[in-house]
Amino acid sequence: MQSSSRTISTLRVKIRAAIVALAELSSSLGELDKFEVGQRAPEGVVKVVEMIAPSAPAPVISNLLASVACASGLKMAKLLVARCRNDDADRMLTLLPCVADSASDPTPLPTKLAALMDLVATKRFHGKEDEARAAAGSVLRLSEELANALDAGELNATDSKEAGALTMRARALLAAHAYEDAFHVYRRLSHSVPRRLSSGRVMLPTEVSTPIVMTAFQLEHDVEQVRHLHASGKLRGGEAALRQIEQAYQEGLDVIRPLAGESGVASMPYGKLPPAVRGLLSSPLHMPDEMSASYTGRAVLNPERDWAAMEASYLRGEVVVLDRFLTDEAFAELQRLGLEATVWHESKQHGYLGAFDALGFAPNAIARLAAELEAAMPRAFGNNSLQQFWGYKYDNTRSYSFGSAAINVHADEASVNVNFWVTPEDANLDSESGGMVVWSKLGNEADDASTRRAYMNVGGDVSPEEKARILGLKDSDATTVPYRQNRAVLFRSSLYHKTDKHSFKPGYKHCRINFTLLFGWQEDVRCRSE
Prior knowledge:
Blueprint: H1 2-34, H2 43-50, H3 58-66, H4 70-82, H5 86-95, H6 109-125, H7 129-142, H8 144-151, H9 160-175, H10 179-192, E1 196-198, E2 201-203, E3 211-215, H11 216-231, H12 238-260, E4 265-269, H13 275-282, H14 307-315, E5 320-322, H15 328-340, E6 346-348, E7 352-356, H16 364-376, H17 378-381, E8 386-394, E9 416-421, E10 436-442, H18 449-456, H19 464-470, E11 478-481, E12 488-492, E13 495-499, E14 513-519, H20 523-526
Antiparallel strand pairs: 1-2, 3-4, 5-12, 6-7, 7-8, 8-14, 9-12, 9-14, 10-11, 10-13
């Protein structure tokens, strides 16, 4: 009898706690709708996330998720991942209603596909490769009609939702290691939907009120690139086109320079730039044929390197330096693309430009390189697929707040990081610098989305020296890799790293260029015990 009374008493306590939790839940869900991942999570949002306890039965989670939009469910899953609670994130994503393959589901297609791609990541983290492939297959099936419209030239060039859905399709193809197919989607999309990046946000040319960061270097670089193309006989329209483009960029510089001052950096509404400049900044003015050339039967990786020894070094946790990384043919082709392809679509406030696969800088040589790296070092890469490729090009004419144009201390959101350099070696004025610095400390201390983003952050006004001090990074734990052309650096992507100080000759052909390939999910490193 006493046992029954205690049971009833315990049950009453749990019921009262549940009622209080439910009362708090409605306001918390309101906070969740407004919350953006990357901000510090409000207390109410944290409470909702904590309800997804490891012991919570599936029906409880399903009932909770039934009351939130798919986008909100995705936010909760990302907060769980930020806490390395990947089991719970996997269960949540599996039970999200929008993940179900239902034609009646009202969730916008890009959001639905984003949920499925997050599910691919959590399944792969847990070694559930069949389930990861199934989720990626759902993305491909749901986006097939849009892909056909893209190839037929029927895509609405101003529809950002369609562009978002097709970006998810490309990511699914990457997850399936179908790299050339993924890059084909990215290239076609860049021609159909003119876009650029500002502070990491994809923008359309029509978003005139959107605040952007724009540098004088961006416009100076672009006009020099057009002159380079004209001198090489590769500018459509010849001399007349050159004069028209030069005039447009000069009008843009007349706007930027007074706003930027000595820093060379301006924050302004996109619409302040003349319309002709906005069009040039987001359009593929020149895409060399090499971008889409087939690499069947041609090697990209240098076959003379001892890849087994390099793999063993990486598996010991070392920073691996790979000289003569690419074949001469592949290196020359990628070097030429860095000079000729008009793909440098993001201005960075610390003096460099970004070119990204998702915005059209998607050479088949890189797709082939990713596949060859995985084949050459299978234990190092495992099931990790290529997640992203980008290039960065640096101002060699002025100083910024950190000195030479540079990327601050950060760790990238991936498992394996491959960086390599393509600018001619004689452009570097100091052979002992100009490369990168990698520390032997992982960016794995974060316990919520805001601090995790801070660990990854490459911006801000904190100097590299101060950021290294805050993070507890010591010079004795750093590996400094000097610049060399056709040199690659391979390391775990969660290791803190930064651009080393550098001094390159002035002139368009001498700008420092690095290319980066990121493989896998950062949590493969950040959330696994050694």
